[in-house]
Each structure stands twice: as structure tokens, then as C-alpha cells.
Specification:
globular; single chain; seven-stranded mixed β-sheet
Length: 170
């Protein structure tokens, strides 16, 4: 009787282990498939400083909920003149984080007219600390960490792109 009870307990433990371990690869596979299906279009974007200098970038567009959630996660590299433009559809307070983001990023928070209202420089890779917009914004641009300092970008600088122009008829 004791041998039979030990066999049943062992069989139950093995089944539980299989179910727990079996769920991990399925979840990982689903995450990987999800990562592969998030695609982004891109467009030119310019930032004009208060001193009149214009800096040109190519930005990927995060317009849909999956794109807004995925952003630049899992990227190993990004060219120096590239970034991502997040369009939130309306002005509202925004909170960002760096979960699953390998690159250090500078975040530029923009009002509905494309004016930079807040900057977060050198956001720490993988950090789950909340990065707040500091007030209502319509857009966020993510660039490689250090670009803001290198180019002298500042609050008050003006951003233009087809996405911003289409929204505001400019």
C-alpha cells in the first residue's frame, strides 16, 4: 500500500512539474510571436532649436496600441539619426518605462503643436522606474541616449513631421 501511495504522489508531482514547465515555453513562444508581428512605418522628422539649427531624423511611428506598448523594446542597436515617434492621439499625461529596452534613450515629450515640453535624458536600460511627461503631451520621441546633449536640444525646441502636420493641418 505504501509503495502504491508513493507512486501516486510521484506521478502527481511529475504531472505538476510537466504542466508548470510546459507553460513556460508556450508563453515564451507567444511573446516571441508577438514581438515579430509588431511592424512600424517610418518618416522623416526635424527638430529646430531655439538657435535655428535643424536636426533631421528618421523615426518609426508608434500609432496603434500594440506599437505604443512595444516601442523600442528588444532592439540591440539604432542608427544615430533614427528614433521613434509615439502618437497618443490626444494630449494627456504620459508615463513611460524602459522594461525590456536594451538601449539607453533620450525621451522628448511634445505638446500637440510639436513643442518640446519636457526631456528625460539617458533613460536607464531595463529600468521599470516610471518616467513621467510632467503634464499633458500628445507625442513622445525616443532617440539614442546622449543625442539631446550632443545636439543641444532643449525644452521649447520645435518638432515637425508629416504625422504632426497631418493632425494639426500645418
Amino acid at each position: 500500500m505504501t509503495a502504491r501511495l508513493s507512486f501516486v504522489v510521484l506521478k502527481s508531482a511529475a504531472l505538476a512539474l510537466f504542466l508548470v514547465c510546459g507553460a513556460v515555453p508556450t508563453s515564451f513562444a507567444a511573446q516571441t510571436a508577438s514581438e515579430q508581428t509588431v511592424k512600424f512605418q517610418s518618416e522623416p522628422l526635424s527638430i529646430t532649436t531655439a538657435k535655428g539649427a535643424t536636426h533631421k531624423f528618421t523615426v518609426e511611428l508608434a500609432l496603434t496600441e500594440p506599437q505604443l506598448e512595444f516601442g523600442l523594446m528588444y532592439r540591440d542597436t539604432m542608427p544615430a539619426d533614427h528614433g521613434m515617434l509615439f502618437d497618443f492621439g490626444t494630449s494627456r499625461p504620459v508615463m513611460m518605462w524602459m522594461k525590456n529596452t536594451k538601449l539607453s534613450l533620450d525621451m522628448l515629450f511634445l505638446d500637440k503643436n510639436g513643442v518640446i515640453t519636457h526631456i528625460q535624458e539617458n533613460a536607464v536600460p531595463y529600468s521599470e522606474a516610471i518616467i513621467s511627461s510632467g503634464g499633458p503631451v500628445a507625442y513622445v520621441i525616443e532617440l539614442n541616449g546622449g543625442i539631446v546633449k550632443k545636439l543641444g536640444l532643449a525644452v521649447g525646441d520645435k518638432v515637425t513631421s508629416a504625422t504632426l502636420s497631418a493632425k494639426h493641418g500645418k
